[in-house]
Structure formats: structure tokens, C-alpha cells
Amino acid sequence: MKIDAHQHFWSTKRPNDYGFLTPAAGVLYKEYLPDDLKPRLEEAGVDYTVLVQAAETEAETRWLLDLARGADYIAGVVGWIDFDTDPGTFIQRLNAFRANPKFIGVRPMLQDLPDDRFILRPRVLENLRTVAALDFPFDILVYPRHLPHIYEMLQKVPLLRAVIDHMAKPEIRTHEIASWRFWMRKISRFPNVWCKLSGMVTEADHSNWQQQDFVPYVQCMIKHFGCRRLMYGSDWPVCLQAATYMQVHNLLAAVLEDLPEKLEDREWNAVFGSNAARFYKLNLLNR
């Protein structure tokens, strides 16, 4: 079973709550829906996907859940809820969404917020403790500059079941790695924090990336997180700024294939499928 742990949909026909969805977005400024992705999944042999929010609204989350209901390959939706709100209101909204079996995780868009320390606000921390108590998956969308704050948050909420999206977007284009590696190593010591091997091509030179550009970053992830806490994600259609779906899929496979220490079959299966199923608690066998 192969799972893409990170992809998006959006529509220019909806009320625009995305912000980025303007003509200036180039290839992204169009409608991307389940029928657009399905043939690409079939070509790559991907059975299921995790659909992730792209707007800071509950309206988009409800729309994504509607899409998931009509597309069997969508294993679940990672949606959005306001974390900086009254804890009573937060748990009410969270439970309302959790009543839908395809609501499998939650993600605030930390990378876009003006306050880099948003994750450490008192109400946010209290609501994160609620998520941790429920053992409910939490996606972390950040840049490297946010990692010290993520580490501090994890010290305060150490039981949070969390996954770092896109490896925290290291500066692959400029080959910067030292500070990113330092903080990722520290964060990896929390055993319930995972990482998605996704979003790499858009952090590289869009028109001239090479396979070798990504090797040190993936090696770092395997060294510190191990193959049982890493998962493949395409970040489609965002990836289209730099690569096709198959190029993204095959790039990760090629990088893993060329590592000095070869992965065993069970490790391949973990990265490309079973880890996502375990992290998001996906029950796919009876579908």
C-alpha cells in the first residue's frame, strides 16, 4: 500500500480564502481537483493520499471534507482550526470536525503568521495540550527560523503527536544546512515527532535542481528520525512550480536508492506508505 502523505486541492470558483491564489501564482492559479490528481496517482502506483488544508478557514476544511467523501483515494483531511482562541471554543470546534471520520489531523499555517512565536502563546499551548491529550495528529508548517520555537513548544507539550511538513523547508537553493540540521537533530529526540520528505523541489532552484542537491537533507532525516518516522509526500500541485508529480515521486526514490546504506524492503514500504497510515491512524484495510 502506497500513500502520498501530503497533497492539496483548491478551486478558483470558491471564495478566495487562500491569499496566494492570484494570477501572479502562475501554474498554481487554476483549479486542482480530485479528477486532476487521480491519473498521476495511478501512474505512480499510489493508492491513497492525505489531503492537507491550504487556507486558514474552517470553510475550506469543510469543502475538503466534501471532496474526500467523493474520492475513495483520499484517506483523510488535515484541516484548519484557530488555535489562538478560547479553549472551550477550540475543543468544541475540534470535536465537531472529529465527528467526521475523514478528519484525521489539524494544521495552523505557522509559516505565514507575522508572529514567529505564535506557537508559544498561552492559549495556543493550552489548545495544543488538548490535541496531545487526544493523541490527535498535528502538522507543523514552518521555515527553519521557526525551529527554535517549535523545540521550545515541544518541551512544554512533549506528548504531542506531530509531523514536520516539508522537512521545515530547508534552504536547499543555497545549500544552507548547518543551523537547520542542528535544530532538526534536537527536535528528532522527541519520539512522537515525525517528518515528511516533501516539498523539496520548491525549496531548490526551480529550473535547475539536481538529485544531488537533496541528498544531504534526506541523509540527515534518516540519521536522526529513522525510516520509521519519515513519510513520502508530493506536495502536489505546489510541486508543479518545479517538477511534475512523477518527477517528485521518482526523485525521492532515486535519492533513497543511492544512499550508502541501502534501505530494506520494509523501510521502503514504511516511508512510502505504512508510516503515514500509522501516524494518521488510517484504517484502510476494510475499504
TrEMBL record:
SUPFAM superfamilies: Metallo-dependent hydrolases. This is Amidohydrolase-related domain-containing protein. InterPro entries: Amidohydro-rel, Metal_Hydrolase, Metallo-dep_Lactonases. Belongs to the metallo-dependent hydrolases superfamily. It comes from Niabella ginsenosidivorans. Residues 3-282 form the Amidohydrolase-related domain. GO terms for molecular function: hydrolase activity. It holds the Pfam family Amidohydro_2. PANTHER family: AMIDOHYDROLASE, AMIDOHYDROLASE-RELATED DOMAIN-CONTAINING PROTEIN.
